[in-house]
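Protocol step 4 of 6: structure prediction from sequence.
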Amino acid sequence: MDRRGVLITGAVLGAAVTVRPAWAAESPGPAVPGADLAAAGTLFEAGAYGRLGRLLQLLLAGAEHEVRTGPAGAARAAGVWVLASQLAVKQGRTGAAGSYAGLAGAAARRSGDPLVLAAAARAAATPLRRTGRAAEALTLLEEARAHLTAGPRPSAAALDAVGMAALTAAYTAAQARQPSAARQFADEADQTARRLARHRNAGGRPLTLSAGQCTLYRIGIHRLLGDVDTALAHAARLDAGQLPTAERRARAATDTARALLDAGDAAGAFAQLRLVELAAPGEARRPSVRALAAEVAAVRPGLAGLDAYVRRTAPGANASAG
């Protein structure tokens, strides 16, 4: 994709921003400041997708410059494109998600950083599996894992990335109807989480892999494999309050809602949809979550509060909150 294509695609991520950031007028320094990239990550974790889109509009232009400046710049560019891909997934734009993930992967390879490569591989996995290319996604994730474990003693950050790659691989395999592989990857993630819990995080880097994260993924994995009872058993064990971000808590409620609806419990599914909105209103406005609410309404059209929920989460409703 050329520069013009990247900018045009990026323009749909948020409303137009007419004020240039302070760093844009300065020639020295990075075109993608680390503080802005960190802020973008925080917005994603909070489910503030409208604000994230507006910030990404600015960062996407800088990423095209950064990728050419050397390994550190390539790593920052990859971080921007990973977030752009993740946001596109949230917005139901699989094609754009794949394009951004491709850019992230190329930048990650240029950076030479195994952690950046793993983040890019995880970003690529979602659009690949949604377009029937689960085998390619699993290959990318396995390559990322091999890079992370090449040394004799992986760091805490590397173990964290290994476990999250395994969880992504487990979900990908489950969606591809590969139960043995899905369970094997999920078990590997559990083992890595236990190992990480004993590992001193000398780098002080925030970690995402945990027992709770593994349980969260198990809900979706077992539901995709058709084992709703096991999915709901994992949901019952999960303390969503211990999940580290609003986006993760909303994901837990969404996956539980899907499992409950599969089990015929529309009222329970709607209760979980309320938790999605409570955790992150931006998540409740996602196309896939609104489609889930529509499924609940089709099963229980007179459910108290459902019509109001659908109106609140319609496109454009309270959009400024995100």
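Step 5 (inspection) to follow. The mean pLDDT is 88.
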